[in-house]
Amino acid sequence: MSLPKIAVVGRQNVGKSTLVNRLFGHRAAIAHGMPGVTRDRIQLNTTWRGRSFGLVDTAGYLHGARGVEALAGQQAQRAIDEADVILLVVDARTGITEEDAQLARRLRKAPVPLLLIANKADEAADLAEVARFDRLGLGEPMGVSALHGNGTGDLLDRVVELLPEGAEPAEDLEEPRFAIVGRPNVGKSSLFNRLLGEERSVVSETAGTTRDSVDSMVTWPDLGQVRFVDTAGMRRGQSVRGVEYYSFLRASEAIDRAHVAVLVIDASAGFTAEDKRIARRVMEAGRAFLVAANKWDLVEEKDRTFKRLGPEIVPFANASAIRTSATRGQGIHRLPPLLIDLHRRWSARTPTARVNQIIQQAQRERPTPRAAGNLHYAAQVATGPPTFVIFGGAHEPEATYQRYLENRLRRELALSGVPVRLRFRARKPGGDRGR
């Protein structure tokens, strides 16, 4: 199964390539002020909120195009025909042009969701002009600034909402990918060097596959080849500036690219509010999760500190914590097998019969709320993270009951440290009567 495709279309010089680069998170598509620079379809695969998709940059629409421009237009049309979601980009400052109107008329009949994006809304005055694009008849326009990033997070959220339901294409799980994340100065680099320096047989430095950071390929004896995704220290986004801001973005992207994240904390400081923010980011991305309480050799009252840590990380997929001292090498030998096991469980698939057995037993022990009704059938539809669809009931159960089912699946399937995603499909009113 191929990735869902998002076609980014529009007339020339409305900022399509700049928008694709912004959504992708790195300058990959060529963006230039001269019209017509993009001619081929360029697909850049990315991930947002745990969903993966391809951004397809296209040539600018030009009415009456000939020669190379006409061929480029054919490529753009193919991107539209193959798309799961279409983004029509217009220029908020220029207003509606004839070419915008012609392209809008063609796209009204598109069988897939379409979003109208008013780009170059860089200032408050530009946002005031966005509403006039309502006249194109394609729904409410979204004002964004691809140059500055304004509104692009909301746009990505909306794109993810429109992606087709069902099992997503499996990632290449043959090569486990790990990210070491955490606040600055908690010992990530020391831990990273220990893992690469003591357990390795082969290490090679290669350019990142989808970003400009550097990844490290490692072959662990008896465990095989793995990839470590490079990260920088993460602090709260609002408190970082300049170069540090881009380090924050790269670290956040590294979480999306990884399969398993090791959250390194300073054991002497405990599980801080900043650590919890990073843990939530890992959960949102759907990545498996392990806490390394580093600098353990500096902690006084060690047993009491570790006992306090356990309950604090329970809300984060009931993850495990291990004690490490990167400077002394303590506890490091435990990490490789734990990480490989986490990756195995994160990418595992459970037979449907077993899933149904767990859900039905859970209902017998704690029935669903009367208003929601009984749940009839369940199946795992995706891995990495494990995703289950549960059918039945008049409507989706309340949040507390959903957490009960999630925790039950996690316990029965040994998914501690692994996010579990549930999707509910309520029965339609009247069922299948009359068919």
Describe this structure in words.
It is a single chain. The chain is an alpha/beta fold and 435 residues long. The chain has 3 domains: 5-162, Rossmann fold; 177-346, P-loop containing nucleotide triphosphate hydrolases (Rossmann fold, 3-Layer(aba) Sandwich); 352-425, GMP Synthetase, Chain A, domain 3 (2-Layer Sandwich), CATH 3.30.300. 32% of the residues lie in helices and 22% in strands. It contains 12 helices and 16 strands. It has helices at 16-24, 67-82, 98-107, 124-127, 152-162, 188-198, 242-257, 273-284, 302-313, 335-346, 352-365, 399-412, and strands at 5-9, 42-48, 51-57, 85-91, 114-119, 142-143, 177-181, 203-207, 214-220, 224-229, 260-266, 288-294, 320-323, 375-382, 387-392, 421-425. The strands form 3 sheets. The protein has a 7-stranded mixed beta sheet, sandwiched between helices. A 6-stranded mixed beta sheet has the order 2-3-1-4-5-6, with helices on both faces. α4 links the parallel β5 and β6 (142-143). α11 packs across α12 (399-412). The longest helix is centred in the N-terminal third of the chain and has 16 residues, at 67-82. The radius of gyration is 24 Å and the shape is globular. The two termini are 32 Å apart.
Output the CATH homologous superfamily of the largest domain: P-loop containing nucleotide triphosphate hydrolases
Number of strand segments: 16
Give the overall shape, derived from the CA principal axes: globular
- The CATH class of the largest domain turns out to be Alpha Beta
| Architecture (CATH level 2) name of the largest domain | 3-Layer(aba) Sandwich
Mean of residue pLDDT values:
78
Report the radius of gyration as a whole number of Å.
24 Å
Largest sheet: 7 strands, mixed
- Strand content bin: 15-25%
Structural class: alpha/beta
The helix content, as a percent range, equals 25-40%
Give the H and E element order: EHEEHEHEHEHEHEEEHEHEHEHHEEHE
Biggest β-sheet: strands ordered side by side in the sheet? 8-9-10-7-11-12-13
**What's the N-to-C terminus distance?**
32 Å
Number of domains: 3
- Which consecutive residue ranges, at least 5 long each, have pLDDT under 50? 26-41, 169-173, 198-214, 240-246, 431-435
